User: What shape does this take?
Amino acid sequence: MYVSIRQYNGRNVAEFSRRVQEGFVPIVRRVPGFLAWYLVDGGGGALFTVTICEERAGVEASVSAAADWVEDNVADLVEGSPAVINGEVRAQA
Assistant: This one.
């Protein structure tokens, strides 16, 4: 299992969340090996997304889809590029 965690600095968390739920969630669900996706409000404009896929290729497809979608749909609501961490799950509960 592989995970991608992306951290965004947002200006309008409610609007970002609405647009992502309506526009990006249907896209990420089509990623090969998709298991789960979450948007986490870290407070103070910090937004984190977590994508979980069966294989590394799914995570890589998710990152690519997210980059394109964010640029086209919510660039006005985020500052700069997100910090991205991708990796293999080594333990779980």
In short: The chain has a mean pLDDT of 95.
